[in-house]
Sequence to fold (376 residues):
Amino acid sequence: MAPIPITVVTGFLGSGKTTLILNLIPQLPHTYKIALLKNEFGDIAIDSQLAASAAISGVQELLNGCICCNLVGQLGDALDSLRKDIMPDRIIIETSGSAFPATLAMEVNRLGRETGNYVLDGVIVVIDVENWKGYEDTSYTAKMQQKYTDLIVFNKWELVDERRYDDCLDRVGDLELQIANVKSDKGRVDQSLLLGLDSTLAKDGDSIHGGYSKDRKPHDHSEDHQTEVEILSVNLVSESNTLKSVDLDSLETFLLSAPKDEVYRIKALVSASHPMASSNGDIDDSAVSHGGIATYILNWAFGRWTFTYSNTNLPPPIKLASSAADSGISKKHETIVRMTIVLARGEASKWKARIETGGMIEQEGEGGFLIVDRVV
Fold:
Protein backbone atom coordinates (compact mmCIF):
# COMPACT_ATOMS: atom_id res chain seq x y z
CA MET A 1 0.00 0.00 0.00
CA ALA A 2 1.34 3.43 -0.96
CA PRO A 3 2.47 5.67 1.92
CA ILE A 4 0.09 8.41 3.00
CA PRO A 5 1.32 11.90 2.01
CA ILE A 6 1.59 14.33 4.93
CA THR A 7 1.32 18.09 4.55
CA VAL A 8 2.51 20.27 7.44
CA VAL A 9 0.87 23.69 7.81
CA THR A 10 2.57 26.03 10.24
CA GLY A 11 2.74 29.73 10.97
CA PHE A 12 2.48 32.10 13.88
CA LEU A 13 -0.63 32.38 16.05
CA GLY A 14 -3.60 33.82 14.19
CA SER A 15 -1.96 33.77 10.77
CA GLY A 16 -4.83 31.87 9.14
CA LYS A 17 -3.72 28.23 9.07
CA THR A 18 -7.14 26.74 9.82
CA THR A 19 -8.80 29.03 7.26
CA LEU A 20 -6.34 27.87 4.61
CA ILE A 21 -7.16 24.23 5.34
CA LEU A 22 -10.92 24.78 5.41
CA ASN A 23 -10.70 26.55 2.04
CA LEU A 24 -8.74 23.62 0.60
CA ILE A 25 -11.41 21.00 1.39
CA PRO A 26 -14.08 22.13 -1.13
CA GLN A 27 -11.50 22.00 -3.95
CA LEU A 28 -10.91 18.25 -3.51
CA PRO A 29 -13.01 15.39 -4.91
CA HIS A 30 -15.84 14.25 -2.63
CA THR A 31 -14.23 10.82 -2.38
CA TYR A 32 -10.86 12.23 -1.27
CA LYS A 33 -10.36 11.65 2.46
CA ILE A 34 -8.49 14.28 4.45
CA ALA A 35 -7.50 13.64 8.07
CA LEU A 36 -6.37 16.50 10.30
CA LEU A 37 -3.90 16.31 13.17
CA LYS A 38 -4.24 19.55 15.10
CA ASN A 39 -1.81 20.81 17.74
CA GLU A 40 -3.31 23.54 19.93
CA PHE A 41 -2.40 25.45 23.07
CA GLY A 42 -4.75 25.09 26.01
CA ASP A 43 -7.24 22.39 26.88
CA ILE A 44 -9.94 23.04 24.27
CA ALA A 45 -9.78 22.11 20.61
CA ILE A 46 -11.60 25.07 19.04
CA ASP A 47 -10.03 24.93 15.58
CA SER A 48 -10.52 21.16 15.50
CA GLN A 49 -14.23 21.62 16.14
CA LEU A 50 -14.43 24.11 13.29
CA ALA A 51 -12.53 21.71 11.02
CA ALA A 52 -14.69 18.75 12.04
CA SER A 53 -17.75 20.66 10.87
CA ALA A 54 -16.28 20.72 7.36
CA ALA A 55 -15.83 17.73 5.05
CA ILE A 56 -12.85 16.34 6.97
CA SER A 57 -12.93 12.60 7.52
CA GLY A 58 -11.22 12.58 10.92
CA VAL A 59 -9.58 14.87 13.46
CA GLN A 60 -7.01 14.16 16.17
CA GLU A 61 -5.83 16.75 18.69
CA LEU A 62 -2.58 17.11 20.60
CA LEU A 63 -3.25 19.71 23.29
CA ASN A 64 -1.29 21.72 25.83
CA GLY A 65 2.16 21.53 24.31
CA CYS A 66 4.30 21.95 21.22
CA ILE A 67 4.20 19.13 18.68
CA CYS A 68 7.87 19.54 17.80
CA CYS A 69 9.10 19.27 21.41
CA ASN A 70 7.29 17.82 24.41
CA LEU A 71 4.50 16.26 22.29
CA VAL A 72 6.70 14.86 19.53
CA GLY A 73 6.61 11.39 21.09
CA GLN A 74 2.83 11.31 20.65
CA LEU A 75 2.99 12.04 16.92
CA GLY A 76 3.43 8.43 15.85
CA ASP A 77 0.46 7.20 17.88
CA ALA A 78 -1.77 10.01 16.58
CA LEU A 79 -0.83 9.34 12.95
CA ASP A 80 -1.30 5.62 13.41
CA SER A 81 -4.77 6.17 14.86
CA LEU A 82 -5.79 8.30 11.88
CA ARG A 83 -4.32 5.79 9.43
CA LYS A 84 -6.20 2.84 10.93
CA ASP A 85 -9.49 4.55 11.74
CA ILE A 86 -9.88 6.83 8.72
CA MET A 87 -7.64 5.33 6.02
CA PRO A 88 -7.15 8.82 4.57
CA ASP A 89 -5.75 9.83 1.21
CA ARG A 90 -3.78 12.58 2.98
CA ILE A 91 -3.00 13.75 6.50
CA ILE A 92 -2.62 17.45 7.25
CA ILE A 93 -0.71 18.40 10.40
CA GLU A 94 -1.61 21.87 11.63
CA THR A 95 0.85 22.97 14.27
CA SER A 96 0.56 25.36 17.16
CA GLY A 97 1.87 28.83 16.52
CA SER A 98 5.26 28.12 18.09
CA ALA A 99 6.13 24.77 16.49
CA PHE A 100 9.47 24.44 14.71
CA PRO A 101 8.84 22.84 11.28
CA ALA A 102 12.27 21.30 10.68
CA THR A 103 12.07 19.17 13.83
CA LEU A 104 8.55 18.07 12.96
CA ALA A 105 9.56 17.25 9.38
CA MET A 106 12.41 15.09 10.61
CA GLU A 107 10.06 13.17 12.89
CA VAL A 108 7.65 12.56 10.00
CA ASN A 109 10.56 11.37 7.88
CA ARG A 110 11.71 9.03 10.65
CA LEU A 111 8.25 7.54 11.04
CA GLY A 112 8.03 7.16 7.28
CA ARG A 113 11.33 5.28 7.09
CA GLU A 114 10.52 3.00 10.02
CA THR A 115 6.94 2.13 9.09
CA GLY A 116 6.67 2.77 5.36
CA ASN A 117 3.24 4.28 6.06
CA TYR A 118 3.97 7.99 5.52
CA VAL A 119 5.81 10.37 3.24
CA LEU A 120 6.36 14.09 3.83
CA ASP A 121 4.76 15.96 0.94
CA GLY A 122 5.48 19.52 1.97
CA VAL A 123 5.82 22.16 4.68
CA ILE A 124 3.69 25.27 4.22
CA VAL A 125 4.13 28.44 6.25
CA VAL A 126 1.32 30.98 6.50
CA ILE A 127 2.42 34.58 7.11
CA ASP A 128 -0.02 37.17 8.42
CA VAL A 129 1.01 40.21 6.38
CA GLU A 130 -1.30 42.58 8.26
CA ASN A 131 0.22 41.83 11.67
CA TRP A 132 3.76 41.00 10.56
CA LYS A 133 5.29 43.94 12.39
CA GLY A 134 3.43 42.93 15.50
CA TYR A 135 5.65 39.92 16.13
CA GLU A 136 8.43 39.65 13.55
CA ASP A 137 10.99 41.56 15.59
CA THR A 138 10.34 39.70 18.87
CA SER A 139 9.67 36.11 17.93
CA TYR A 140 12.57 33.83 17.11
CA THR A 141 10.16 31.12 16.01
CA ALA A 142 8.16 33.36 13.68
CA LYS A 143 11.37 34.23 11.83
CA MET A 144 12.72 30.69 11.65
CA GLN A 145 9.48 29.15 10.41
CA GLN A 146 9.94 30.74 7.01
CA LYS A 147 13.42 29.28 6.62
CA TYR A 148 12.40 25.63 6.90
CA THR A 149 9.55 25.55 4.41
CA ASP A 150 8.60 24.57 0.88
CA LEU A 151 5.92 27.19 0.26
CA ILE A 152 5.11 30.53 1.88
CA VAL A 153 1.51 31.70 1.78
CA PHE A 154 1.06 35.44 2.32
CA ASN A 155 -2.28 35.89 4.06
CA LYS A 156 -4.34 39.02 4.86
CA TRP A 157 -2.35 41.09 2.36
CA GLU A 158 -5.63 42.57 1.07
CA LEU A 159 -6.02 44.38 4.39
CA VAL A 160 -2.81 46.43 4.12
CA ASP A 161 -1.25 48.90 1.72
CA GLU A 162 1.34 47.89 -0.84
CA ARG A 163 4.20 49.25 1.25
CA ARG A 164 3.39 46.92 4.16
CA TYR A 165 3.33 43.95 1.81
CA ASP A 166 6.65 45.01 0.24
CA ASP A 167 8.20 45.26 3.72
CA CYS A 168 7.06 41.70 4.39
CA LEU A 169 8.62 40.49 1.14
CA ASP A 170 11.86 42.25 2.03
CA ARG A 171 12.08 40.51 5.40
CA VAL A 172 11.54 37.12 3.83
CA GLY A 173 14.15 38.06 1.23
CA ASP A 174 16.64 38.75 4.03
CA LEU A 175 16.81 34.97 4.56
CA GLU A 176 18.50 34.72 1.14
CA LEU A 177 16.66 31.51 0.30
CA GLN A 178 14.81 30.49 -2.84
CA ILE A 179 11.37 29.68 -1.45
CA ALA A 180 8.20 29.58 -3.53
CA ASN A 181 5.53 31.98 -2.34
CA VAL A 182 1.95 32.82 -3.20
CA LYS A 183 -0.70 35.31 -2.12
CA SER A 184 -3.90 33.82 -0.74
CA ASP A 185 -7.30 35.01 -1.91
CA LYS A 186 -8.83 35.78 1.49
CA GLY A 187 -7.32 32.61 2.90
CA ARG A 188 -7.79 30.49 -0.24
CA VAL A 189 -4.97 29.03 -2.35
CA ASP A 190 -5.47 26.70 -5.30
CA GLN A 191 -5.02 23.07 -4.26
CA SER A 192 -2.52 22.48 -7.08
CA LEU A 193 -0.12 24.86 -5.29
CA LEU A 194 -0.61 23.36 -1.83
CA LEU A 195 -0.40 19.64 -2.59
CA GLY A 196 2.35 17.64 -4.28
CA LEU A 197 5.21 19.91 -3.16
CA ASP A 198 7.80 17.09 -3.01
CA SER A 199 9.28 18.51 0.16
CA THR A 200 12.87 19.74 0.17
CA LEU A 201 12.95 18.87 3.87
CA ALA A 202 12.27 15.26 2.96
CA LYS A 203 15.08 15.16 0.41
CA ASP A 204 17.63 17.32 2.23
CA GLY A 205 17.76 15.33 5.44
CA ASP A 206 21.50 15.70 5.98
CA SER A 207 21.40 19.48 6.09
CA ILE A 208 18.98 19.47 9.02
CA HIS A 209 20.07 16.23 10.65
CA GLY A 210 19.96 16.48 14.41
CA GLY A 211 17.85 19.64 14.30
CA TYR A 212 20.30 22.02 12.68
CA SER A 213 21.40 23.27 9.30
CA LYS A 214 24.86 24.39 8.26
CA ASP A 215 24.20 27.87 9.61
CA ARG A 216 21.90 26.97 12.46
CA LYS A 217 22.62 25.61 15.90
CA PRO A 218 20.60 22.71 17.32
CA HIS A 219 16.96 23.25 18.18
CA ASP A 220 16.76 22.82 21.90
CA HIS A 221 15.14 24.52 24.80
CA SER A 222 18.03 26.80 25.60
CA GLU A 223 16.02 28.97 23.20
CA ASP A 224 12.67 27.68 24.39
CA HIS A 225 10.25 29.02 21.83
CA GLN A 226 7.30 28.08 24.01
CA THR A 227 8.32 30.91 26.35
CA GLU A 228 7.51 33.38 23.57
CA VAL A 229 3.87 33.16 24.62
CA GLU A 230 1.97 32.76 27.87
CA ILE A 231 -1.35 30.94 28.22
CA LEU A 232 -4.35 31.58 30.45
CA SER A 233 -7.17 29.09 30.92
CA VAL A 234 -10.48 30.74 31.84
CA ASN A 235 -13.53 28.87 33.11
CA LEU A 236 -16.88 30.41 33.97
CA VAL A 237 -19.20 27.96 35.74
CA SER A 238 -22.78 28.34 36.92
CA GLU A 239 -23.58 28.09 40.63
CA SER A 240 -26.13 25.34 39.98
CA ASN A 241 -26.80 22.53 37.56
CA THR A 242 -28.94 24.89 35.45
CA LEU A 243 -27.42 26.02 32.16
CA LYS A 244 -26.78 29.77 32.09
CA SER A 245 -25.64 32.26 29.45
CA VAL A 246 -22.52 34.37 29.36
CA ASP A 247 -23.06 38.14 29.44
CA LEU A 248 -22.50 38.92 25.75
CA ASP A 249 -22.17 42.69 26.23
CA SER A 250 -19.29 42.22 28.68
CA LEU A 251 -17.69 39.60 26.43
CA GLU A 252 -17.85 41.89 23.39
CA THR A 253 -16.31 44.74 25.39
CA PHE A 254 -13.46 42.42 26.35
CA LEU A 255 -12.89 41.38 22.72
CA LEU A 256 -12.90 44.98 21.50
CA SER A 257 -10.50 46.14 24.22
CA ALA A 258 -7.85 43.43 23.88
CA PRO A 259 -4.71 45.04 22.37
CA LYS A 260 -3.13 43.11 19.50
CA ASP A 261 0.40 43.50 20.83
CA GLU A 262 -0.54 41.89 24.16
CA VAL A 263 -3.25 39.34 23.27
CA TYR A 264 -2.57 37.05 20.30
CA ARG A 265 -5.46 34.57 20.38
CA ILE A 266 -8.71 33.99 22.25
CA LYS A 267 -10.46 30.66 21.68
CA ALA A 268 -13.54 29.59 23.58
CA LEU A 269 -16.62 27.45 23.83
CA VAL A 270 -19.44 29.68 25.06
CA SER A 271 -23.01 29.13 26.26
CA ALA A 272 -25.15 32.05 25.09
CA SER A 273 -28.83 32.94 25.03
CA HIS A 274 -28.50 34.34 21.51
CA PRO A 275 -25.76 34.68 18.88
CA MET A 276 -23.29 37.55 19.11
CA ALA A 277 -22.23 39.25 15.91
CA SER A 278 -18.79 38.42 14.55
CA SER A 279 -16.42 41.36 14.17
CA ASN A 280 -17.51 41.85 10.54
CA GLY A 281 -21.15 42.12 11.59
CA ASP A 282 -22.24 38.65 10.45
CA ILE A 283 -24.56 36.74 12.77
CA ASP A 284 -24.80 32.96 12.80
CA ASP A 285 -28.53 32.47 13.42
CA SER A 286 -28.53 28.73 12.73
CA ALA A 287 -29.20 28.04 16.41
CA VAL A 288 -32.38 30.11 16.58
CA SER A 289 -34.60 27.13 15.76
CA HIS A 290 -33.15 25.23 18.72
CA GLY A 291 -34.43 27.80 21.19
CA GLY A 292 -32.98 28.70 24.56
CA ILE A 293 -29.25 28.62 25.29
CA ALA A 294 -26.87 27.21 22.70
CA THR A 295 -23.12 26.56 22.44
CA TYR A 296 -20.96 28.79 20.24
CA ILE A 297 -17.33 28.73 19.15
CA LEU A 298 -15.48 32.00 19.66
CA ASN A 299 -12.31 32.40 17.61
CA TRP A 300 -10.47 35.73 18.06
CA ALA A 301 -7.16 36.80 16.50
CA PHE A 302 -5.58 40.24 16.30
CA GLY A 303 -8.79 42.20 16.83
CA ARG A 304 -11.12 40.14 14.63
CA TRP A 305 -13.37 37.29 15.67
CA THR A 306 -16.01 34.84 14.57
CA PHE A 307 -18.88 33.57 16.72
CA THR A 308 -20.14 30.30 15.25
CA TYR A 309 -22.91 27.96 16.39
CA SER A 310 -21.79 24.50 17.50
CA ASN A 311 -24.08 21.49 17.87
CA THR A 312 -21.96 20.15 20.74
CA ASN A 313 -22.38 20.73 24.46
CA LEU A 314 -19.76 22.31 26.66
CA PRO A 315 -17.73 19.81 28.69
CA PRO A 316 -18.32 19.56 32.44
CA PRO A 317 -16.24 21.77 34.75
CA ILE A 318 -12.70 20.60 35.33
CA LYS A 319 -10.52 21.08 38.38
CA LEU A 320 -7.87 23.58 37.31
CA ALA A 321 -6.40 24.67 40.63
CA SER A 322 -7.08 24.77 44.33
CA SER A 323 -9.33 27.75 43.68
CA ALA A 324 -11.82 25.46 41.97
CA ALA A 325 -12.00 23.16 44.97
CA ASP A 326 -12.25 26.12 47.34
CA SER A 327 -15.27 27.39 45.40
CA GLY A 328 -17.05 24.07 45.72
CA ILE A 329 -17.28 23.53 41.97
CA SER A 330 -18.18 20.04 40.85
CA LYS A 331 -19.31 18.30 37.71
CA LYS A 332 -22.89 18.93 38.82
CA HIS A 333 -22.40 22.57 37.85
CA GLU A 334 -22.70 23.69 34.24
CA THR A 335 -19.87 25.22 32.21
CA ILE A 336 -20.72 28.62 30.71
CA VAL A 337 -17.32 29.52 29.19
CA ARG A 338 -14.24 27.39 28.55
CA MET A 339 -11.57 29.73 27.14
CA THR A 340 -7.88 29.72 26.22
CA ILE A 341 -6.07 33.06 25.90
CA VAL A 342 -2.65 33.22 24.24
CA LEU A 343 -0.66 36.28 25.30
CA ALA A 344 2.66 37.91 24.58
CA ARG A 345 5.51 37.12 26.92
CA GLY A 346 5.17 38.90 30.26
CA GLU A 347 1.44 39.66 29.95
CA ALA A 348 -0.20 36.71 31.75
CA SER A 349 -0.13 38.07 35.30
CA LYS A 350 -1.55 41.44 34.29
CA TRP A 351 -4.38 39.97 32.24
CA LYS A 352 -5.18 37.34 34.85
CA ALA A 353 -5.77 40.14 37.36
CA ARG A 354 -7.80 42.17 34.86
CA ILE A 355 -10.10 39.27 33.99
CA GLU A 356 -10.60 38.31 37.62
CA THR A 357 -11.56 41.82 38.68
CA GLY A 358 -12.75 43.61 35.55
CA GLY A 359 -16.16 42.07 34.81
CA MET A 360 -15.01 40.99 31.34
CA ILE A 361 -16.24 37.40 31.47
CA GLU A 362 -19.33 36.96 33.61
CA GLN A 363 -22.65 35.21 33.78
CA GLU A 364 -25.75 36.94 32.43
CA GLY A 365 -27.50 38.29 35.50
CA GLU A 366 -25.85 37.46 38.80
CA GLY A 367 -23.77 34.55 40.02
CA GLY A 368 -21.23 32.23 38.47
CA PHE A 369 -17.75 31.03 39.45
CA LEU A 370 -14.86 32.50 37.47
CA ILE A 371 -11.55 30.61 37.54
CA VAL A 372 -8.46 31.97 35.77
CA ASP A 373 -5.30 29.85 35.77
CA ARG A 374 -1.99 30.29 34.02
CA VAL A 375 -1.12 27.22 31.93
CA VAL A 376 2.19 28.34 30.39
The mean pLDDT is 77. The longest strand covers residues 118-128. Residues 147 and 307 are 34 Å apart (CA to CA). The chain is about 25% helix and 25% strand.
